[in-house]
Amino acid sequence: MTEKTAALTTEKKGALDRTGEKSMATRDETLYIAPPVDIFESEDALIVVADLPGVDKEAVNIRVEDNILTIKGSAIYSPRSGILVEEFNLQGYYRQFQLSDEVDQSRISAESKNGVLTITLPKAEKTKPKQIKVNLG
After folding, report:
1. Distance CA 137, CA 121 (A)
2. SS3 assignment, position 50
3. How far is the C-alpha of 78 from the C-alpha of 91, rounded, in Å?
4. Which end of the chain lies in a sparser environment, N or C, as judged by fewer CB atoms within 10 Å?
5. Helix, strand, coil: what percent of the chain each, to 5?
6. pLDDT per position as a tens digit, 5-63
7. CA distances from 9 to 3, 26, 68 (A)
8. CA-based angle 47:49:53, to the nearest 5?
């Protein structure tokens, strides 16, 4: 599994080109943070552990498309009323990984607890190690 960086194609909001048409952006204008991840390999699966502080499980979007695993999440912050000074702004999280044929994409599962996202990528049956028994002939 390797990290993948892909361009996002979205429309710019309100930006018009010389012909008066909306121009296309090559990247999404939203700023994202690449969440730190740890990747472990067990006998049966690859396990991706990503830190997404402030992100509820409802705000996490995990997709697999064209062998690319995409993790996207938005932190939710509700400031108190009457703020005088606001010195920070929460960014979303975004990270992509290229999957190999060793992953059984139909059995991928994910769980989120206390801002830690754990994605289990089960290995396909053909890639699991097999013990071959030797018979006496």
Report:
1. 40
2. strand
3. 14
4. C
5. 5, 45, 50
6. 554 434 344 455 555 555 555 555 677 889 999 999 998 999 999 999 988 888 999 99
7. 19, 5, 16
8. 160
State which CATH number among 3.90.226.10, 3.60.15.10, 2.40.30.10, 2.60.40.790 fits the domain covering 2-77+88-125. 2.60.40.790
**Is the pLDDT at 131 greater than 70, yes or no?**
yes
Assigned token pair, 117 = 């996202």
- DSSP letter string over 91-115? -EEEEEEE--TTB-GGG-EEEEETT
Residue type, 91: Q
Residue tagged 């409802």 (tokens) = 58
Instruction: Report in angstroms the alpha-carbon separations of 25 from 13, 30, 45.
Output: 10, 11, 37
Residue keyed to tokens 């049956």:
125
pLDDT tens for 115-130 read 899 999 999 887 667 7
Three-state DSSP state, 57: helix
